[in-house]
Amino acid sequence: MGDVVHSDELLRRLQRARACAREEHRTWRTRSDDLTTSDPQAARDAAVRTLAYETVLRVLDEILTPGRHTEPH
Predict the structure, then answer these.
(1) What is the rounded distance in angstroms from the CA atom of residue 69 to the CA atom of residue 18?
(2) 49 near 23, Cβ under 8 Å?
């Protein structure tokens, strides 16, 4: 079995994961916007990653603040 993780540590880990996902979401959204005219295929790939991180953010937000976020980001 794995190590026991206390609730405070679990909360800190989830918050760090959310911060990381938020930064990645911004990075990929910016990359998608920047590539739209120069490289449409790369822009689409970046847009897919943006949506993936958006989904991760919604899940983490719901775990950390249940019921608070009812609308998509």
Answers:
(1) 14
(2) no
Whole-number Å distance between alpha carbons of 33 and 25: 12
The count of residues in the chain is: 73
The pair of three-digit structure tokens given for residue 44, joined into one six-digit string: 């689409």
Q: How far apart are CA 46 and CA 20, in angstroms?
A: 17
d(CA 7, CA 12): 9
Please list the alpha-helical segments (H only) found in 1-73: 7-35, 40-64
pLDDT tens column, 35-58 = 999 999 999 999 999 999 999 999
pTM: predicted TM-score of the whole model, two decimal places:
0.80
